Amino acid sequence: MLTITRELHDAIVAHARADHPDEACGVVAGPAGTGRPERFIPMLNAARSPTFYEFDSGDLLKLYREMDDRDEEPVIVYHSHTATEAYPSRTDVSYASEPHAHYVLVSTADGTGPDDAFQFRSYRIVDGEITEEDVELVEAYQA
């Protein structure tokens, strides 16, 4: 199960809506070994595409160095789908290289207004196998 604060959930959704009609992408880092998403890191979709996302390799290298310096790891890797449901594509599965990460997809296919419907779903993707997991929204993490 992915446990995430409402604030982080809303930030991911806002990023997906802001970048629509292109796919949005980013990471939520957390303290290494905790599995707790804490630091929202929106990234630029280097592909600038409504059907595909790609992290800029330089930005990604900088991010991983920064996370290493802060003793963090990617807890959530997220992106949006602008015309399809929030389910990993074959390309998404091929890019899933973090076996401990939650892969969050947000679909903005139904609209981009503040009251429009959207999907927010989380998956584990390990060795090409997709497993959907529940998402629990909390106001704050328990100590």
From TrEMBL:
Record flagged with keyword Metal-binding: yes
Origin: domain of life: Bacteria
Residue ranges occupied by any MPN domain in the UniProt entry: 2-126
Keywords of the record: Hydrolase, Metal-binding, Metalloprotease, Protease, Zinc
Record-linked InterPro entries: JAB_dom_prok, JAMM/MPN+_dom, MPN, VirAsm_ModProt
Pfam families per record: Prok-JAB
Gene3D superfamilies, A to Z: Cytidine Deaminase, domain 2
SMART domains: JAB_MPN (SM00232)
TM segment ranges: none
Entry keyword Protease: yes
Designated name of the protein: M67 family metallopeptidase
Organism taxonomic ancestry: Bacteria, Bacillati, Actinomycetota, Actinomycetes, Kitasatosporales
